Amino acid sequence: MVRPGKALAAPQLLLLVFLCLLAGGARASPPTDALRRVSPRAGAGGLCQQLLLPQGYPCTEHTVQTDDGFLLSLQHIPHGRNGIADNTGPPVFLQHGLFQGGDTWFINSNEQSLGYILADNGFDVWVGNVRGTRWSKGHSTLSVHDKLFWDWSWQDLAEYDVLAMLSYVYTVAQSKILYVGHSQGTIMGLAAFTMPETVKMISSAALLCPISYLDHVSASFVLRAVAMHLDEVI
């Protein structure tokens, strides 16, 4: 068992992620102007206030703007509940999957949720939320009622969202990033890693439940879930 506050090496991180998945815990040079495109919102309402702060974890909210105008929410958990801030390990970026948001990494208990486990083991945890999800519904010029707000594909998530979020984390942490993606977060990561400006910020990646395409989906349950915006309901 890793002692609280002691950071793991990259191979150990991959093993930890794999063990968490088996146990059910997985359920759940960058642009120089990156900092100017971000507005930290420490203590503001959001995922931090609703989930992390009540559990005793330090957490700050950040907003990153993509090159195509979307305003994305990022959460930063610098360490666990043990209060050790000077022994922070490498930055870990957690990217959720389809129909989900950053809260997916914290919905189980502290012992079963990967976000909590990483923070308690000394990692510098960052949580991404792509456009259109519960925590990322802003845009510099569009509203959620505009058709253009929803005119994008997962390729845009890789090209714009992943790049913008990783660029900010890299700029703040001044360190290469350990990327953890789940479901859609895996294909987004792989696509983003084909871009030189993104892959140079990555030290390693753990891909949970990797997927590619979901063409010609006809299952009534899936279509119903999309129509209901299920990611906001659960």
Q: Main traits of this protein?
A:
AB_hydrolase_fold; lipid degradation; AB_hydrolase_lipase; 8-stranded mixed beta sheet; disordered N terminus
Break the fold down into its secondary structure elements and pairings.
Elements: H1 10-23, E1 38-42, H2 47-52, E2 60-65, E3 70-77, E4 91-95, H3 114-120, E5 124-128, E6 138-139, H4 154-173, E7 177-182, H5 184-192, H6 196-199, E8 202-208, H7 220-227, H8 230-233
Parallel strand pairs: 4-5, 4-7, 7-8
Antiparallel strand pairs: 1-2, 2-3, 3-5, 3-6
Helix pairs in contact: 4-5
Give a verbal description of the structure:
Pfam families: Abhydro_lipase. Belongs to the AB hydrolase superfamily. Lipase family. By secondary structure, the protein is an alpha/beta fold. The protein has a single domain, classed as 3-Layer(aba) Sandwich (Rossmann fold). The protein is 31% helix and 19% strand. It has 8 helices and 8 strands, in the order H-E-H-E-E-E-H-E-E-H-E-H-H-E-H-H. It has helices spanning 10-23, 47-52, 114-120, 154-173, 184-192, 196-199, 220-227, 230-233; strands at residues 38-42, 60-65, 70-77, 91-95, 124-128, 138-139, 177-182, 202-208. Strands 1, 2, 3, 4, 5, 6, 7 and 8 form an 8-stranded mixed sheet that branches. Helix 4 packs across helix 5. The longest helix has 20 residues, at 154-173. The radius of gyration is 17 Å and the shape is globular. The relative contact order is 0.17. The model is unreliable at 1-5 and 22-44 (pLDDT under 50).
